[in-house]
Amino acid sequence: MPVAKPDVAPVRPLVATGTEPPASDSLQAALAACAVCALGDEDIDPACGQATAWASARTAELGRAGGPQHVAAVGRLMLANPATPVRLLAARAAALDLPGSATALVGQAARESDPRVLAVLWSLLRGSPAEPAPVAVRVQAAERLVSANAPAVQAAAVGVLDPLLDGPVLLGALATATDSAKAAACEKLYAFRPAVIADSAADPLRNSATVAPVRLACLVGAARAICSLEQGDARHATEVVLAALRASPPWQLVAALACVKAMSDEARQALARALRPVVDDEQSAPLARAEAVRTLAGMGAPAPWFGIWRQRYGGAKFGSEGLIGAALQAVVR
Predict the structure, then answer these.
(1) Consecutive H or E run containing 273
(2) Of 237, 299, 252, which Cα lies nearest the Cα of 271?
(3) Is the Cβ–Cβ distance between 72 and 100 less than 8 Å?
């Protein structure tokens, strides 16, 4: 199928790289030695001696005149190293010279197969989370999202895409992507484009077969939309959140509603009425019941509610009621 590429205005071409270091460079050798380091889900094992030595050499070089440019040049030279830990560290080093290293980083991202390194490359190229990623990066992400890539690669791609500029690509992910990418896309769309997903048949919350992690991500995104008065029409987001609160809600959703100061008065009152029964619902998750107490306190719910709960749960020490009692002790109402 054709790739749904982001539709954005042209951007300025990326800048070429600078002078590369000689092959005998000691800093390059220190970075190459990190090939033996273990790489976890997101980063290098901090106990790896070679990584510690590289960090020390890097810090020392950064303190010298021209040091940042030298470190970045070494990073660019090592971006295609066969060792995954080296490529990850090289990307961070190269990013010290942006936009000078942008062409090299974009090129490596196009070739990169390890989702951990790819996520780092895209994150470095994106810069400020408040701004959309460069068009070249978003095009890469769109291509990876519609291809048969590992779940972690697809999830990283969703993280790069902009909900305002790449809405059609994210909507497509709801139908074709792996569950982890689908969850990330749904949370992002509900948080920033609630009216768009409300009109889409691809909304996972409309499908009873949607797996729990994806459903939860959608609901957390909807909670974020309710909490932001800048997101425009959030009626659909409010409806799905209120419906979820009536059916033993997950504690993560209740906790996501703690952003009460950003809510409209109408939304706050509706949510308070929906959250009150959660506290007394023995079928709800214990953490959800405790989070409901804290969230209601932040909403400024009526003090008599808390007086009733203190009489009922104040002396409890264990189990679900003990969690509620502890939450009541921590709030002032």
Answers:
(1) helix 265-280
(2) 299
(3) yes
